[in-house]
Structure formats: structure tokens, C-alpha cells
Amino acid sequence: MLRQGRGIALAVAVALAGCSGQTAKTGPGPGPGGGCGGLTSCGGRCVDLASDASSCGACGHACPAGSSCQGGECLCGPDTPDSCGPTAACVNLSTDATHCGDCATACAPGAACQYGVCACPVGALVCSGSCADVTSDPSACGACGAACATGASCSGGSCDCAPGALCSCPPGLSVCAGRCVDTSTSFTSCGACGNACRTDQRCAAGTCGCPVGFQDDGTACVSIATGAHCGTLLNACAAGDVCRAGGICGASCGGPLFLSHVEFATGADPRDIVAADLDRDGHLDLAVVNVSSSSVSVLLGNGDGTLRPRVDYRVGTYPWAIASGDLNGDGRPDLVVTSPGARTLSVLLGSGDGSFQTPVAYRASRDGAWGVTLADLDGNGALDVVTANLQDSSVSVFRGRGDGTFDPHLDTSVGAGAAPRGIVAGDFNGDGKPDVAVAVEEGVACLLGKGDGTFQPFLLTTLSADPAYAQAIAAADLDGDGKLDVVVTRAFANTVTVLLGKGDGSFQPPVVYDTPSLPIAVAVADLDGDGRLDVVVIGGTNGAVLGQTVSLYRGNGDGTLQPRVDVTTPTSPTAVAIGDLDGDGRPDLAVPAGGASVSVFLGQCP
Q1: ∠ CA(569), CA(571), CA(573), 5° rounding?
Q2: What is the pLDDT of residues 62-77, one digit of tens each?
Q3: For 386, which of 47, 69, 189, 463 is 20 to 30 Å away at the CA?
Q4: Residues linked to residue 522 through DSSP beta bridges, in sequence order
């Protein structure tokens, strides 16, 4: 493949045959004086083989379109620095719709290539292999597959059945706002057109209700698998007891927390993971980013701890981190993925059935975004995207518009050489405005939000003067004082550090716990059902094999942790998501494992 500044070396013989049967030579030639004056005779004309694009290095060796001849080698120019195909044609993989991201990927008809990712024009999406204008296409009105009823029109992404129009639907469906709707399952028209369920409810048999394992207290769906509400909303367990499977209170568990794991296939080289109910069936699902295959794998849960075969969505090159939330206010979970290799942020809007619309790419910071989190930083009711930018030593805010689109990013420095990686959002000073904490080389940088999408100057909590590759960060109230604390892993120090919050954006002196080598991910949850938060650290070595350990630290409820218990995995773990995957009220672990799989560890405690 040709690259800018790199060419194909040509072996040129002194007596190489030229055009029209002539012999390439220097010296005497067809000029008036009988020579070419130091050039080479090719096809009856004098040629500089070092710079002539039609005879580069040898007579008749023409350079591909978009390249030039320099020193007898064909070089692609700065506008088309890549080469593809048997003719080594010069292209730009960032902008060429016929070679988008790589030589083998062609964009759908009507789509353009932006930053190595195919994208349709504004208002259009890739539907059934081509760009559809979802603002006016009745077969894809507002989203792919969102067809209007027969006889209805589409305007501005909304279906309309004009007065007097004969709009109709197949048997079993009703015409609601110009669309064909199954009112027995529709979240927005449950039982009748326009009868919308709350965002935490589901629609079953035409009735809005809470998912399995939850009961409605009149304002929200509340879990009935906790000590405060065990089996029913009114049944609270005694102090020290926990809610066991079946809604029965009992003593907390002292045995192993998890059963042996089961693996499920993902794309190549999975790196990060998120758990969410992507298809709104009451069961947790998983979305995994895959570095080597530049994709997101969606694995829908069956509710028993098993997962359905994955469905992959292509995103920018070298995807690294993922987050989930409702970005457009439709009650359906969406996904956000950072791709530092492509220097993009990909947004995948959910359809509510576990599938996603074609990813839309946004230009990230100069050298790409790494970590990602979501929060409504400007108080407009729409989630914003916040990224940690490793090379730029900054944090970027993409302000959400409420419709799933975002403004260009605004950057805030976290200090020269800070190299931020992990990032988490939360209210660290108790003023009701979301803040951000970032894992940086020397410790933790806390950026207090002003409530308008911008931050005050960052507060740095130094863990050591020597950089130790602070990698991952999580936030939770570990000591139960109502103030957010943080837990951060430091890969080169082989530690996990607890910083108890003071409630003003600063932290108490660090308390450090040892980990296996190279800890790269961390999460917090009550794993043993005792009402105290525990910590999970991913990565490292158990003393023999690099990167094959999940470490569990039980919390004491006062912000301190018990000595770790290591669980060895057969392949290298890279991240962790915690949630109830089998519906038994116990937290389970989902861990991306090196190669092409995710491991599920089902909880058995309490």
C-alpha cells in the first residue's frame, strides 16, 4: 500500500525496454544535438525518470492517480495518503466513500465518509443498504423501519393521517398518530393510542407495569430484592440480614460470591462493556466494544444468565470505551463509543428492541477521546457526553440537544502531561450540579460543574509525585456519609486507592490496597448483600499469568476494604459490568475476556 512519503522501490535495469520498442538510455537521444542532456529517451521523448509521473523509475511505469513521482518512486500526496486495490490507487480512507475506514468498506448509496465512518446527510440514515430521508420517507419516518400506516404521509420525521385519508394497518395493529402500533406492547401507546408508560415501566398485554422483580410504589418501580424491600415493598429485613432469592430475609453470605464463569462470543479483542436493558424486556443485556474488529457487539439477555448470539455494529477504528443512556428522550437506551484510532465519538440511537440505528460519528479531540461518561451538565434535561482525552490532557464536553445529536465539543485542560484515562460523573460537592472526576497520571482531577456545561478550575488530589498510570475510576458512597467517594486503580503502582470525599470536591488522604500487577478496571457494588459496597478490580496477574485475575474486595461500610479474594479467569479480562443477569436478585459480573468473548460470573450470595 502506498503511503504519503513512502513509495514502491523499482528495480530498473540499464537496458530496460522503453515505449515503442526503444531502449531506455541517457546520453545521445532524439534532441537536435543527438542527446537528451542527461535525461532518458522514452517513446521518442526525453524523460526524467526521477520525476515524470508517466515514466517513474522506468519508461512506461505510470503512477496511480493522485500520486506524484519523487526520486523514481510513486508517492501518494497529503490529500490522498492511502492506497487501495491492485493498481494501488491513492485514496483518503477518512473521506473516500468507496474506501471508508479501510479499503474493503464502501458506504451505502448516498452516504458520505466522515473520519473513516460512513454517514448519511443530515436528516438521513442508512436503511436497508441505502440512505433514507427519515424526515419525509413514509417507509422510514423518524427512524429506520418506522413505517407510517398505509395512506399516511411523513413530514419532519412524524407520520400524519390527514383528515379524510383512509389510513390502515395490518390486522392486530392500530393506527396511532399515523403509524401502525401494537397497543398490547407499545411503550408510547399502551392499551390505547397516546397512553404512554413511565420510563421505568414496561407495556404487557396493553397494561403499563413494572419489570419482574420490581413493584410500583405509586411514583417509581422499586426493586423488591433488597433488604429494605424484600419480596414486597412492605417487607424490610432485620438489621444484619439480607434479602435472599425468593424474597426471604436471611443472614448474609460468607461463602464464595460467584459461580464459575460461562463465555459468550464477541467481536475481536473486546475492551469495554456496559450492561443495560437494551430491548426493554426487563432483562439486562450487554454491549461490548471490540478494538481489533472496530465494532460494538450487542448481546441480548435471556433473563437466566445466558445471552443470545451477538449482533455487531461497525464504529470508528480502535474503539476503547462505551457508555449507555437515553440520549434523545424516547425512553430507549442508546450507546456512545469512543474511537481514539479514528479520533471520533460514535452515537448509536436505540430502537427499543435491542437494535440500533447506524452509528453517527462526531469529531473528537485532536488526538482522540478515550474514557467516556454521561451527565446533564448544563441542566437542559438532555444528557451530555464527557470524554477523557489521553494525548491532549483534557476533558471534552459534547452538549446534548435532546434529540440524540450534539454540539461540537468544548475542551477543558486537566494539566499538562496529565494523560487522563478513566472518567466518572457525580455530584462531588453536593450543590446539585453534576461534576466530573478523572484518573490522571499523578492522581485524581476533580472538575466541579457550574451547571452550564462548563467547569471551575480542576482540583488535583495527588497520590504520588511519580506517574503511575492511573487507569480506571469509579464513584460511590463507600462510607455511607452521603458524600461521594472515588476508587482509582494505578497500573504501574499495582494498587487500588480509596479516596473518601469531603463533600466539597476534595478528598481525605488516600488509603491504598495492593492488587495483582497492572490493574486496569474497577467497579463498585454490594456483591454479598450485606448493605455495604464492595469493590471489583480487573486485570493483573495471580503471580504466574499476566492479565488473568478478577479481584474482589469486600467493604466494611466505613470506607475501608477487607483483603482481596482473587478469581482466576482463563483469558485476559479488560473491564467489568455488574448487574443481575439471571433475575435472582443477586449481582452478577460480565467481564470482556481477551480474544473474542465475554465471561459471565453468576452471583450466588446472599
Answers
A1: 75
A2: 888 778 898 888 888 8
A3: 463
A4: 537
Residues sharing a CB contact under 8 Å with residue 392, sequence separation 6 or more, in sequence order: 365, 366, 367, 411
Strands 214-216 and 588-593: unpaired
**Strand (E) positions, 191-247?**
202-204, 207-209, 214-216, 221-223, 241-244
Distance CA 161, CA 331 (A): 25
The C-alpha torsion from 189 through 194 and 195 to 198, rounded to 10°, is 80
| Distance from C-alpha of 114 to C-alpha of 325, rounded to nearest angstrom | 24
- Pairing type for strands 35-42 and 26-28 reads antiparallel
E strand residue ranges, 300-416: 311-314, 321-325, 334-339, 344-348, 360-363, 371-375, 384-389, 394-398, 410-413
The alpha carbon of 69 is separated from its chain's Cα centroid by a whole number of angstroms, namely 42
Average pLDDT over residues 462-480: 82
Alpha-carbon Rg for the chain, nearest whole angstrom, is 29
Residue owning grid cell 455488574: 578
Closest CA to 272 of 329, 208, 339: 339
Count the alpha carbons within 13 Å of 398 in the hemisphere toward its beta carbon.
27
The candidate with the shortest Cα–Cα distance to 572, out of 542, 535, 604, is 542
- For position 431, what pLDDT does the model report? 94
The residue-averaged pLDDT of 176-183 equals 91
Long-range CB contact pairs, 74-82, < 8 A, 24+: 74/2, 74/7, 74/8, 75/2, 75/4, 75/5, 75/6, 75/7, 76/2, 76/3, 76/4, 77/4, 78/4, 81/3, 81/4, 82/1, 82/2, 82/3
Band (pLDDT 50/70/90 cuts) for residue 245 is: low
Q: Cα–Cα distance between 90 and 108 in angstroms, integer? A: 21
Residues 337-381: pLDDT tens digits? 999 988 899 999 999 999 999 899 898 987 789 999 999 999 999
Task: Report the alpha-carbon distance of residue 413 to residue 216 in Å, rounded.
Answer: 44
Looking at beta carbons, which pairs linking 307-310 to residues 24 or more positions away fall under 8 Å? 307/264, 307/598, 307/600, 309/265, 310/264, 310/265, 310/266, 310/267
Q: What is the pLDDT of residues 251-307, one digit of tens each?
A: 766 666 777 789 999 999 999 999 999 999 999 999 999 999 999 999 999 999 999
* Residues 225, 213: Cα–Cα separation, whole Å: 7
Give the Cα separation of 570 and 548 in Å (integer): 6
Q: Could you tell me whether strands 174-176 and 179-181 are parallel, antiparallel, or unpaired per DSSP bridges? A: antiparallel
Q: Which residues fall within 8 angstroms of residue 365, CB to CB, at 6 or more apart?
A: 343, 387, 389, 391, 392, 394, 396, 409, 411
Per-residue pLDDT band for 186 (boundaries 50, 70, 90) equals confident
Stronger pLDDT, 584 or 192, i.e. the higher one:
192
- The one-letter amino acid code at 26 reads T
Residue 174 has pLDDT above 60, yes or no: yes
